[in-house]
Write a structure and sequence with these properties.
mainly alpha; globular; 2% strand; two-stranded antiparallel ribbon
Length: 431
């Protein structure tokens, strides 16, 4: 009898827990929103809860940028000069573009080791088609980008359809596409890109009018505010918890302060670089794709639980192939910007430590190596960390050997933080 009563009570509790809330009732299940009613104390409590639960977000990389800039700025005031920071904003674009593609792949819990070779191949394709064969520069640019997308699609096919591990497929691609790049360049080995070429101008063009930088900051802040308010209204209409208006305003003010400070620094030197503007626009578009579209939700679903996504009716093979194609596309775009930076395509394009830098940028920026967690903004933050370290050490005259060791240590630290964060999330039942 006692066992029956216990079973009955348990069944009743389960029934009660599964009942839908009555119409008009308040869905009080989001503790993150409940603590905000306590004011500043509530926010502090929420912050502590996130730390205990491993929900670190962009906090570690933001702190890293602050520490790096403080250290190098104290050692040499040149580092924080308007000229150096403006140059840094341009120099991280090529690496950041390629890192965006790596972010997409990491969201699946996979890796792409071919992006360096793909970027070099696509830069060589543009240079040979446009400079040596006289093809229209815009058409050559489209062919190069399409080539990157096709290469990524090939990788995705062997991974998703044939079942070859992504590590093996892209490692083979790293060798094969590097060989094809050498074949495309031919005996000359180097093709110089004219300064008036579209690729060179996309990198070097700067909007000298102060209005350009401030207008870009204003538009960005305005879009953020509008999107936040629209999302809050949509969630309230659906009867689910949403951010309070006061918090949205506070976040907008913080973003506005950062955006206009960046615009001020850029205007103190030359102005707004076109390359940086293109990078930011791409980040906004791809962030929208990942967070606001069905396709983006499917990418996160496949990265979080492949079998669960398959049972939910998601085309896992299509998602995987499209993600690797995206990685190839972004590698091509990044490779073109890198070629425009040095105004040439050579046998060393896409080589050196480029592959390690783009993977490090994605991971350091906060994208998890275990899949299902990250943001395209990780590419910007991570590239900023990598670029800041390299810029600071170049100013200090530090050798390449030491730079490699320090960059590797930062990457290891980022992976350790990611692993500890995931462990904390598992302990809290959120992973």
């Amino acid at each position: 009898m006692k066992r029956d009563r216990l079973s009955g009570n348990a069944g009743g509790a389960a029934d009660n827990a599964s009942q839908e809330p009555a119409p008009g009732s308040v869905p009080a299940v989001d503790t993150r929103l409940l603590v905000r009613e306590e004011g500043l104390k509530g926010y502090v409590g929420e912050f502590r809860r996130k730390l205990r639960g491993g929900e670190l977000g962009s906090l570690p990389v933001v702190l890293a940028v602050i520490v790096i800039w403080t250290v190098f700025g104290s050692l040499d005031s040149t580092f924080l000069s308007a000229q150096n920071l403006s140059d840094l904003s341009q120099q991280i674009v090529g690496t950041g573009m390629i890192a965006v593609g790596i972010v997409f792949v990491l969201l699946l819990g996979e890796i792409d080791l071919s992006v360096g070779s793909v970027s070099g191949l696509c830069a060589a394709l543009f240079a040979v088609l446009n400079v040596l064969n006289g093809m229209n520069e815009w058409l050559a640019l489209l062919v190069a980008v399409a080539g990157g997308a096709a290469v990524g699609l090939i990788h995705g096919f062997f991974f998703a359809k044939v079942g070859v591990p992504a590590f093996v497929v892209t490692l083979a691609g790293n060798l094969a596409w590097n060989g094809l790049m050498l074949q495309v360049l031919g005996t000359s080995g180097t093709v110089n890109i004219p300064a008036e070429s579209v690729v060179a101008e996309l990198y070097s063009t700067v909007f000298h009018s102060p209005v350009a930088a401030y207008a870009t900051a204003a538009v960005g802040v305005g879009l953020f505010l509008a999107a936040s308010l629209l999302d809050a209204r949509r969630r309230r209409t659906a009867g689910v918890p949403s951010r309070p208006v006061a918090e949205i305003v506070l976040r907008t003010l913080v973003l506005a302060a950062l955006a206009f400070a960046a615009a001020y620094v850029l205007n103190r030197y030359q102005g707004l670089p076109l390359a940086l503007l293109i990078f930011l626009v791409l980040l906004v578009v791809l962030d929208f794709v990942l967070r606001r579209t069905t396709y983006g939700r499917r990418v996160f679903a496949v990265g979080g639980n492949v079998e669960g996504a398959r049972r939910a009716g998601i085309g896992v093979a299509f998602v995987r192939m499209s993600v690797f194609s995206m990685a190839g596309t972004m590698a091509a775009i990044g490779g073109l910007f890198l070629a425009g930076q040095i105004q040439s395509a050579s046998q060393t394009s896409g080589g050196g430590n480029l592959l390690m830098n783009v993977i490090a940028a994605a991971v350091i920026g906060g994208t998890s190596l275990f899949g299902g967690r990250g943001s395209v903004w990780s590419a910007l933050l991570g590239a900023l960390v990598i670029g800041s370290i390299q810029s600071g050490m170049n100013i200090m005259g530090v050798s390449n050997a030491v730079q490699f060791m320090i960059t590797g240590s930062v990457l290891l630290a980022a992976v350790v933080v990611d692993s500890l964060s995931r462990r904390s999330q598992k302990a809290a039942g959120r992973a």
